[in-house]
Design brief:
CATH superfamily of the largest domain: Fumarylacetoacetase-like, C-terminal domain
Radius of gyration: 18 Å
Distance between the termini: 18 Å
CATH topology of the largest domain: Fumarylacetoacetate hydrolase, domain 2
Shape: globular
Order of helices and strands: EEEEEEHEEEEEHEEHHEEEHEEEE
CATH class of the largest domain: Alpha Beta
Number of strands: 20
CATH architecture of the largest domain: Alpha-Beta Complex
Structural class: mainly beta
Length: about 280
């Protein structure tokens, strides 16, 4: 199933993507059962949102063998974790906004895991039972700031630096999926998730021993080799086999629309009492 999260009729809604239409559901996948309404709506008339509202985005560094070689880093013995703020999320087709004076900014295409059930100290053999599905995340990084700070928070935490989407794909084996990143149509990353040092199952168990994962939380599983810079005017497209395609234009701060309480580009007004939506 390909789940979409969108804003229509003044509400945050979920539905199943069926070609150019979405079959609308009652409820959401993070709070009990969803049920079909029998209604369909064209994707052209809805506001596509990031597919979940995580309490945290847990990212894994240096998790592809060839990326470690590319960056001159040793193969890690245990997963390297860091966090990105949920305020960095934007949806498919929403712009990545380059802040003033940050220097080089890089794309990083990644398989994202969306948690469906609360996880605390879960064994590897049970880890995938807690997964709702899979999505795509672009771990956009201000590389000069990352190198200056050593740690990752500031470089990876800017608004719009976590495009996520286009939806959530359920019932998928994540162990050997092709992952492609294109900038302006030119292939920059071409790898498979089988090059991961730590599998999805291993990562989830490891992370759940250090922090509780809540429904809607996102795990970004690391990026393959081929990372590189993006500048205003570029378009970044990340495609993962069986999951979909995430596309985002890149713009400069002065070209970005102003946003008040409604949130960053690609978000929508917050609904009341909708939980993770």
């Amino acid at each position: 199933m390909h789940l979409s999260h969108f804003y229509a009729f003044g509400r945050h809604l979920y539905g199943q993507l069926q070609g150019d239409e979405i079959a609308v559901f009652d409820g959401n996948p993070f709070e009990g059962q969803m049920s079909p309404t029998g209604q369909t709506i064209s994707v052209d008339v809805v506001h596509i949102l990031p597919p979940c509202r995580p309490s945290k985005i847990v990212c894994v560094g240096s998790n592809y063998r060839m990326h470690c070689v590319e960056m001159g880093r040793p193969i890690p013995d245990v997963p390297k974790l860091f966090l990105k703020p949920p305020s960095a999320l934007v949806a498919h087709d929403a712009p990545i906004v380059i802040p003033d004076g940050v220097g080089r900014v890089d794309f990083e295409g990644e398989l994202a895991v969306v948690i469906g059930r609360r996880m605390t100290r879960v064994a590897e053999e049970d880890a995938l039972d807690h997964v709702l599905g899979y999505s795509i995340l672009n771990d956009v990084t201000a590389r000069d700031i990352q190198n200056a700070d050593v740690q990752f928070t500031r470089a990876k935490g800017f608004d719009t630096f976590s495009p996520l989407g286009p939806g959530i794909t359920t019932d998928l084996n994540p162990s050997d999926l092709r992952i492609l990143t294109r900038v302006n149509g030119v292939v920059k990353q071409d790898s498979r998730t089988s090059d991961m040092i730590f599998s999805v199952r291993t990562l989830l168990s490891f992370i759940s021993r250090h922090m509780t994962l809540e429904p809607g939380d996102v795990i970004a599983t690391g990026t393959p080799s081929g990372v590189g810079p993006i500048v205003p005017g570029d378009e970044v497209t990340i495609e993962i086999e069986g999951v979909g395609t995430l596309t985002n234009p890149v713009i400069a701060r002065q070209d970005a629309p102003r946003h008040g309480a409604g949130g960053a580009p690609g978000s929508a007004p917050r609904a009341q009492g909708v939980g993770h939506e």
